[in-house]
Design brief:
By secondary structure, this protein is mostly helical. The chain is 73% helix and 0% strand. The protein has helices at residues 3-55, 57-62, 72-75, 79-87. It is rod-shaped and about 85 Å long. It starts with a helix and ends in a 12-residue tail after the last helix.
Length: 99
């Protein structure tokens, strides 16, 4: 193999290795950035829902509990505890967990 071919092969392999390294680092950075963005969107949505619940808690308490809010944690509790939880002064968002 001539000197010219060895030089081209080593330069080509170096560029491929460098490109793979940069691509891997960009992927890791992009994954962190997407995760951070999704966390921020989730926090913004939770804040919006909490604001909506805080503005009209009497409508939520007056309506029968949604089956979507019943969790396995509440299904095993006595009926009086679940009723007391639903009518207590806790925020409606706390229904999912026990007051």
């Amino acid at each position: 193999m001539s000197l010219r071919h060895r030089l081209l092969a080593s330069l080509g392999l170096s560029f491929v290795a460098l490109w793979l390294l940069v691509a891997g680092l960009m992927y890791l950075h992009l994954e962190q950035q997407v995760s951070r963005t999704l966390d921020q969107r989730l926090a913004a949505s939770a804040t919006m829902v909490a604001g909506l619940i805080a503005r009209q808690p009497e409508r939520l308490l007056a309506s029968p509990p949604s089956p979507l809010l019943v969790t396995p944690q509440l299904e095993g509790l006595p009926a009086r505890f679940v009723q007391q939880t639903a009518t207590s002064s806790c925020k409606p968002a706390v229904w999912i967990t026990a007051c």
